[in-house]
Amino acid sequence: MITSKKIRAKTPRALVGWREYVGFPDLDIPFVRAKIDTGARTSALHATNLHHYDVGGEDWVRFTVPARKGRPEHRVEAPLAGVKKVTSSNGEAQRRFYIHTKMKIGSRIFSAEVTLTNRGQMGYAMLVGRTALLRRYNVDVAKSWVQGGGPTKEVSK
């Protein structure tokens, strides 16, 4: 007996390591060094000098992504998607601005929600959470820089 179920073509998932280079085409940022964190729900980008302002009745945010490890400083303006409460790994709750933007890991470009926070004390300018990875990537925690896209194309195992 044949049942009527929708058959969906599945796009194969790409592989990422525990750290990767992530680009932001809409923000003109070619790459940032990112830690892949399946324990985090949301993605977070290192941003300083945050400034919220109004453009014709719409909320916008201006911020700086500081220079780091081979990447120059970037000053960014983007539509503000909202403010959300995020609980960090140390249990501290913060209210953070977030934006919707295109994110690029390897050859794949997709829309993602990214919170803006000061990650100056962290080892990586970006934290990629599980929501951005969902149905797109599998993570191999024993590998790094699998997708390339940064200042070098080396892959370590």
Automatic annotation (TrEMBL):
<dbReference type="GO" id="GO:0006508">
    <property type="term" value="P:proteolysis"/>
</dbReference>
<keyword id="KW-0645">Protease</keyword>
<dbReference type="Pfam" id="PF05618">
    <property type="entry name" value="Zn_protease"/>
</dbReference>
<keyword id="KW-0378">Hydrolase</keyword>
<protein>
    <submittedName>
        <fullName>ATP-dependent zinc protease</fullName>
    </submittedName>
</protein>
<dbReference type="InterPro" id="IPR008503">
    <property type="entry name" value="Asp_endopeptidase"/>
</dbReference>
<dbReference type="GO" id="GO:0008233">
    <property type="term" value="F:peptidase activity"/>
</dbReference>
<feature type="domain" description="Retropepsin-like aspartic endopeptidase">
    <location>
        <begin position="16"/>
        <end position="147"/>
    </location>
</feature>
